[in-house]
Structure formats: structure tokens, C-alpha cells
Design brief:
The chain has six helices and twelve strands. The chain has helices at residues 17-20, 26-40, 57-62, 75-84, 120-132, 210-219; strands at residues 3-6, 47-51, 67-72, 89-92, 104-109, 134-142, 156-162, 166-177, 180-191, 197-206, 222-227, 237-242. It is globular and about 55 Å long. It starts with a strand and ends with a strand. The structure holds S-adenosylmethionine. Residues 10, 52-54, 57-58, 72-74, 77, 94-96, 110-113, 116-117 line the site of S-adenosylmethionine.
Length: 243
């Protein structure tokens, strides 16, 4: 039976997430994050919050140097994060309504997680929440969805995982609808000894634009900067320091 739903990879298919993203070098990204923190952090502590932490692979490599907390809206992702990054505090929370009653030195929100809030109004609320959870001089590092120019309407893309006991192919076409990228991901999973499974996984990501994002960060009390080259090739990053 074909299952079609939104954000399957973050829910029913969460156990395949790390394999789908096995091309990413989370250790290298953690080192880059640490270098950015050394460069920009103006508060003195090491309390770090990862918002939309997913399966916790950045936290796995940051937890020895920072006092780490991870939040995500998905129970399934958090379940995996708890085994990937043992000793880290995890909480189920929606970044649009985040209220942990605590302030941090660093907030990271990586790999398009922020895009899932979709609208500019929700982005404003989310960034205000980030600001509220930062100490004075604390640092926000936000990796947005790809820029609009990355998505070519109708161009097919593929990600493949070629493990010994499992093969995963994820093919997608993106449609741009105003300021939203709609990605219909066709996911085919073949595991040893099992029937192949086929899903259509729909992701809708807000494309907020550079100036709009900087404006919202500034309005939330963050001194803000845009970096064209962030943690990996083709990925941008916003840097905000709490005034
Ligand atoms: C593409 S994954 C990125 C995960 C992780 N940061 C990484 O780099 O691998 C996006 C994550 O954002 C989470 N997410 C989506 N909307 C969210 C929200 N409103 N609040 C908190 N987390 C959210 C999803 O559950 C998913 O784990």
C-alpha cells in the first residue's frame, strides 16, 4: 500500500533518517560550529540549545564541549536522538511556541529545520523565541532552507543510500509556490529479507529571503549577519548576537 503524508522522514520513517543523510559529515559541521562560536560568542558560558535537533547528530559531537539540550517537535526523532547523543537533555517542543524557562549561550537551528515554520509570521514568533532563550551576548546560528534560486521548478533530484543490508532512493521534484518550496519526495526502501516499500513524503519549506530574515532577527534584538558559505557547500547561515 502506498503511504503519502507530510514529513514522513521525521516521523514514521525516522529510523531511516541517518541513512538518508549519511552523505553529511556531522563531525566536520560540529567543528565548523565550534569555530563560529569561538568567533562570535560574546557571553561567557557553554549552554547550547539545538532547536529542530532531529536525530541529535550535531549534539553527539558537541556534547563533550557544551552543556547541551535538544528540542524537536517529533517524538520519533527524539527517540533516536536519545541513543545518538547519550547524556544530552532532550525535550519535545515546537519552536513556534518554545518556552523552556531558561537562557542559553548558543542556539543552533540547522538543516532547514526553521523552514518548517513556513510563514513569515511564524518565523517572527520563532526568532523572538530564540532571542528570549539567549543570554546577553549569546549567539544564534540558523541554517535556513536553500535559497529560492537553488530550487529549479520541475528539476528532478536524487539522494541514494547504498548500504549492505539496505538501499534507499529518494527522488524529488520541487515546486515553488510563492514563498514556499513544496518537495514531493518519492522514497523507495529495500531492506534485506523484506519487501520493498514505497512512500511519497511531502515537505513544505518557507523561503524567507535574506533581507527579510535579517530584518526579523534585528527586530527580535539580535545583531545579525548573513554568511553565504555556512556549514557545508551550498548552505547559507544566519548569525545573530543577542544585544
Ligand atoms: C531536516 S531535519 C534537521 C534535523 C537536524 N537539525 C539535522 O541537522 O540533521 C528537520 C527537523 O526539524 C524538526 N521540526 C520541524 N518543525 C519543527 C518545529 N515547529 N519545532 C521543532 N522542530 C521541528 C523535524 O521534526 C526534524 O527533526
Amino acid at each position: 500500500m502506498l503511504i503519502m503524508s507530510k514529513q514522513l522522514l521525521h516521523n514514521q520513517l525516522a529510523k531511516y533518517y541517518d541513512r538518508v543523510y549519511s552523505f553529511k559529515d556531522y563531525l566536520d559541521e560540529a567543528v565548523r560550529l565550534q569555530n563560529l562560536i569561538i568567533k562570535y560568542l560574546e557571553s561567557g558560558g557553554n549552554a547550547l540549545l539545538d532547536v529542530g535537533c532531529g536525530t541529535g547528530l550535531h549534539l553527539k559531537h558537541l556534547k563533550d564541549d557544551f552543556s547541551c539540550t535538544g528540542v524537536d517537535v517529533s517524538k520519533s526523532m527524539l527517540k533516536i536522538a536519545r541513543t545518538n547523543a547519550k547524556g544530552v537533555t532532550f525535550k519535545e517542543a515546537d519552536m513556534k511556541t518554545l518556552n523552556l524557562g531558561k537562557q542559553f549561550d548558543v542556539i543552533v537551528c540547522l538543516l532547514s529545520s526553521i523552514g518548517y515554520v513556513k510563514t513569515t509570521v511564524s518565523l517572527e514568533k520563532t526568532i523572538q523565541n530564540f532571542s528570549k532563550h539567549l543570554k546577553k551576548g549569546g549567539l544564534a546560528l540558523i541554517e535556513p532552507s536553500h535559497a529560492k534560486s537553488f530550487y529549479v521548478n520541475g528539476e528532478p533530484r536524487i539522494t541514494a543510500y547504498n548500504g549492505k543490508d539496505a538501499k534507499i532512493a529518494r527522488v524529488n521534484f520541487t515546486k515553488i509556490r510563492q514563498a514556499t518550496a513544496v518537495l514531493n519526495m518519492h522514497v523507495l526502501i529495500a531492506e534485506r529479507g523484506k519487501d520493498a516499500k514505497y512512500f511519497v513524503d511531502r515537505h513544505e519549506l518557507g523561503l524567507f529571503g535574506i533581507n527579510n530574515t535579517l530584518r526579523i532577527m534585528k527586530a527580535a534584538g539580535l545583531k545579525s549577519k548573513y554568511l553565504k558559505n555556512g556549514l557545508m557547500t551550498g548552505r547559507e547561515l544566519f548569525v545573530g548576537i543577542k544585544k
